[in-house]
Amino acid sequence: MTAKETIDAHDQIVAPGFIDVHTHVEDIYSLPSAENFVRMGVTSLITGNCGGSAVDIGKFLGQIKQKPIAVNLGTLIAHGSVRAAVVGLDDRAPTPEEQAKMDALVEKGMKDGAVGLSTGLIYVPGTYAKTDEVVELAKVASKYGGIYASHIRDEGNAVVDVIKEAINIGEQANMPVEISHFKISSKHLWGQSPMTIALVEDARKRGLGVTVDQYAYTASSTSLDVRLPNWAVAGGRAEGKKRIADPATREKIVKEMKEDLKKKEFKDYSFAYVASYSPNPAFNGKNIPEIAQMVRGKKKIDAQIDQILEMYTNGGAGMVYQVMNEDDVKNIMRQPFTMIASDSGVRRFGEGAPHPRGYGNNARVLGQYVRELKLITLEDAVRKMTSLPAQTFGLRDRGLIREGFAADLVIFDESKIGDKATFDQPHQYSEGFSSVIVNGQIVFDGEKMTGKLPGEPLYGNRSEVQ
To answer: Which residue numbers in the chain have pLDDT < 70?
Structure first.
């Protein structure tokens, strides 16, 4: 067969297209090029993580036919979204009838092509679910070959217990477990990653398929809401605002926020940076003490908490939290069961001050941790971005360069590859990639996006037990 086009990959690495198994791209149809992902070598995305997804999975994946995208797309069916649709945002257990409705929604999602069930047990409303509620839903997803992917309840002081909970759910439901953005986010436990890693190793020795994903940074990114006690935000923002407006309840909230800081050994909120705050974009890129000083003329802890509560009542904010230790990041990255994943969304270039992982995660691993630090080998880094994610999420024709597999490829110069995005200047694309190919079509030619939109839906196993 004569090729229509030839690419000169002399002295470069040709690898399978990278698979990012932890993304939040429910809005991808409004940004179909997914340029921030493509330009760091990513050709396939798994969304629906952390308990948030479309509830109608068939409709969500089916949109690709009418609204083409540049990358392949799969999704989990999310417990939090299902619970919100049936139970709402209340802090209570579901009735038997509500549990049955949730079971039915998960079953339909799996039949429609979800790759598994996700939970966000630190977020409203997932945080209000007891373990048995999740186990029942996981058993439904397990019937269809799904995986259980969890943002666990606490990545700080209670991290050991909640890792055990995630493993327990997988064991009870007889399904593999994938722990999202594996980390330790309490200063009190920095350096204790060998302990959390051992929990995964022990479960794997017992025969349970447990993997983790990780981004290559010491900062996390999520909402401002998680700084408040879970009970304070039950029922949604309107109810939370009522509690903050009540003096006695506000006093209790403030007290618990101070206690939480003390437990995690942080003296104040200088670790908390605003990524996006719609009411006042001037806050973007600044930390809470800086904002408190700017707005209130003082930055002691009470002023910081007042500022957080005011921002919460005004709609909340996207945040970046500098809460991790580099030694733990390295230790987790070395593990054979760790996948590289960004925990990012599709980015509008220049908008807000988002976490740089959305522009640089894969390139950062290849440039810093492989080439510069030699922490892991190039081959292992590529495996963590390709075949391991494909095997873990049941993507049978992805993750390898093999005859009969989908033609998802990335070509890069290992001597030049690297991330440019920083926390101060996050909107910078990675460098060193010369071609990114999705389903046989070049979507990035080393200089620019080509405008091709060849992405396909990635359906789950859907193998119902007879």
So the answer is: 1, 462-466
pLDDT attached to residue 461: 75
* Element holding 408 (H helix, E strand): none
Cα separation, 128 vs 274, whole angstroms? 26
HSE, CB side, 13 Å, CA atoms: give it for residue 455: 34
Residues 6+ apart with CB under 8 A from 158: none
The per-residue pLDDT for 294 is 97
Please give the pLDDT value at position 466. Answer: 30
- Among 218, 228, 283, residue whose Cα is nearest residue 250: 228
pLDDT in tens, 389-408: 999 999 999 999 999 999 99
The dihedral region occupied by 272, where left means phi > 0, alpha psi between -120 and 50, and beta the remainder, is beta
In the block, which residue shows the tokens 């809005």? Answer: 27
Cα angle at 118 between 93 and 92, to 5 degrees?
A: 10
CA dist., res. 378 & res. 58, Å (int): 37
Evaluate the CA torsion angle 220, 156, 118, 83 in order and state its sign.
negative
DSSP type of residue 91: S
Would you say 244 and 313 are in contact if contact means Cβ atoms under 8 Å apart?
A: yes
> CA-CA distance, 271 to 211, in Å (whole number)?
28
Three-state SS at 240: helix
Query: Could you tell me which of 200, 219, 423, 194 has the C-alpha nearest to residue 325?
Result: 219
DSSP state of 33: T
Question: How many CB atoms lie under 10 A from the CB of residue 239?
Answer: 15
- The answer to whether the CB of 410 falls within 8 A of the CB of 16 is yes
Spell out the long-range contacts of 5-9 with Cβ–Cβ below 8 A and sequence spacing 24 or more: 5/442, 7/411, 7/434, 7/435, 7/442, 9/411, 9/434, 9/435
Task: Please tell me the distance from the alpha carbon of residue 247 to that of residue 436, in angstroms, as a whole number.
Answer: 56
Q: Find, among 447, 234, 187, 217, the residue nearest to 332 by Cα.
A: 217
> Residue ranges of the alpha helices (H) in 42-173?
57-66, 79-86, 96-111, 131-142, 159-173
Question: Is CATH 3.20.20.140 what the domain over 13-218+324-444 is classified as, yes or no?
Answer: yes
Domain boundaries defined on the chain:
13-218+324-444, 223-321
Any idea which residue has 């740089």 for tokens? 356
Distance CA 433, CA 35 (A): 13
Which amino acid is located at 88 in the chain?
G
